[in-house]
Amino acid sequence: MLLEIENLKASVEGKEILKGINLSIPAGEVHAIMGPNGSGKSTLSSIIAGKDGYEISGSIRFDGVEIMDWEPEIRSRAGIFLAFQYPVELPGVGLSSFLRACVNESRKHRGEPELDASAFLALMREKAALVELSQELIRRPVNQGFSGGEKKRNEIFQMAMLDPKMAILDETDSGLDIDALRIVAEGVNKLRHAQRSMLVITHYQRLLEYIIPDRVHVLIDGAIVMSGDRNLALTLEEKGYDWIRAGQEVSS
Amino acid sequence: MAQSEQELLEQLSERDYPHGFESNIEQEIIPKGLTEDTIRFISQRKNEPDWLLQWRLKAYKHWLGLKEPNWQKLTYPAIDYQDISYFAAPKAAPVLNSLDELDPEIKSTYDRLGIPLEEQMMLAGVAVDAVLDSVSVVTTFKEKLAEKGVLFCSISEAVHLYPELVRAYLGTVVPFTDNFFSALNSAVFTDGSFVFIPPGVRCPMELSTYFRINARGTGQFERTLIVASEDSYVSYLEGCTAPKRDENQLHAAVVELVALDRGEIKYSTVQNWYPGDKDGKGGIYNFVTKRGLCKGTSSKISWTQVETGSAITWKYPSVVLQGDDSRGEFYSVAMTTHLQQADTGTKMFHIGKNTQSRIVSKGISAGRSQNSYRGLVKIRKSAHKARNYSQCDSLLMGNRCGAHTFPYFEIHQPSAIVEHEATTSKIAEDILFYCTQRGLSRESAIAMIVNGYAREVLDHLPMEFAVEARKLLAISLEGSVG
Ligand SMILES: Nc1ncnc2c1ncn2[C@@H]1O[C@H](COP(=O)(O)OP(=O)(O)OP(=O)(O)O)[C@@H](O)[C@H]1O
Ligand SMILES: [Mg+2]
Fold first, then answer.
1. What is the ipTM of this complex?
2. What's the pTM value of the predicted model, to 2 decimals?
3. Alpha helices of B205-325 — where are they, by DSSP H?
4. Could you report the per-residue pLDDT of A45-56, keeping only the tens digit for each?
5. Contact A90 B449 (CB under 8 A)
6. What distance in angstroms lies between residue A39's CA and the mean position of ligand 1's atoms?
7. Distance from the alpha carbon of residue A38 to the mean position of ligand 1, in angstroms
């Protein structure tokens, strides 16, 4: 198992947001999470990535190691990547120098030598082509003045640059136009391989037509209430979440 | 591509104040205290003409009647002006013709500061004047500059070599009557740089001075004078360091710039005087008067400063826009950490028609420091269609520091257009999380964000200086952010 989450609970200021999540993702698999607004999807992603500010209990193991105490940068260097639902802007911080620092941090962590300027530039060119991110955007400060869709594309570009073992894509599809969705999804597919797992959060079955998931989980009100294969996404698209909620009430 | 901030950080991460070493150079230091005799001694020691001695003495008498200014937002114990030595000089012959003659210990001092004079000469093509304590120890590239008619030497030499030029301009932009510290400086100034660019000459290289306070118990009172004649251009860089000491040392400099018709002066400073330790012990008291006079039409003076050092900074590089169509600029990054205090900003005096000024100030406060921007834009009645744009941003780190903005505007000409913008921000947690999620440590994320914040100003520095300034901002923040 690459990622194993057991009975993960999280609350903020006494309000419980995650209510005992259990989720295991084997290496190489793509899992999708769907769920209504406010159900806790982004909170779950942030906590896997190590964000501070929650009271947490339970366990998160990555590659068999408990990582609950790890700082976000250590998790990142170990291979956890989060494509943010709302990427922030870093005024004045050039995208290429930012990424170069980030890439070299994870290389150092893996005991690899730092990339020199020309190797880094070549890598950037290659990965930018993957999601068709323009050179003009690469020269700008990180996300500064980027459109919503450009920011999302930039997240996948960064993922490609950092070459993680586990990528969490939090609503990467929202904000992308029809062509961009296809381009980004194809980019993501090219990044799929037997060693890399992904957790794809989305509201729309459309994305899952491109990025075909091995498993689909439904997160409602801080708990995974149903899991299934890719057909579950189709059912959700058709019926919404009420039938699951109704089913829960019946069963409880 | 420039070296990434991160790499720089790593190289420097173990250092605290890397320039805090002390050199064992044989010094001549006069006893502490300030009387007329002290001034006579300095003047005699420098073999000065009588007019200069008389000028110093007048300044001294004027100073005796002045009180230290107290309007600034700074608190520090009273300075005992009798407890300072006003002259310290390396014992070896101070004026040299080539680097070979330089005391090896002095040379190694500058090497350790990262200012290998020879290398600078060869690679960067930067002409360097190095001022150690009170005297200029070496000026490089003199001949090459002389070919173009550029005069670049220490002010002490200039007094002898170009007395008529010095006499014509000294004290014309910052008269000794200007303020307490300019009066003190005029009485006791020991060295500094002199630059004269003849008409029509674009100075072929960056000129630069490194100031270093080494001797204990001394003050540094340097005086710099730069004149850009008609249609000339010069870019001048100033860097400063001092050893780490638990005493406070006074630095009271005066810099005067004069730009004639269409002359342009770009003056850049990276000020890294020892700021004191984290409990506020030691550090330089930096009281500096810098002013440029845009005397000619369409002349231009631009100040760029990166201020990270000093326990106390009191500094308002100003421009007097006298010539029609002249232009003044001020780009500043002032960073304070621990218990540092900075009260800095600029003054723009618009006198000529169509004069323009631009102010970009970026304050960064961390620890328990206090950082104030103080700026005055004054538009005289004669300054038809004058324009000013000011932008003052403050970045706060943590909640024990302070940022203050004091913008003053005095506008006596209705056709003038003045714009002012100010922002105060903190580094938001979600921004830090974004960076750490990508693998950066919190500390390097902060350094990167701060450099990004200061970028607009750093971009105005010459390349090599910008790299140095980025490093400085990163190191200065170390250990001062949670
Ligand atoms: N720091 C916080 N303080 C208070 N409430 C929070 C905080 N973070 C999240 N919440 C609340 O937790 C719930 C889950 O939020 P989260 O962002 O995880 O939802 P989501 O499933 O990603 O929703 P969406 O589909 O709209 O992106 C919401 O009700 C949200 O308001
Ligand atoms: Mg969300």
1. 0.96
2. 0.82
3. none
4. 999 999 999 999
5. yes
6. 7
7. 5
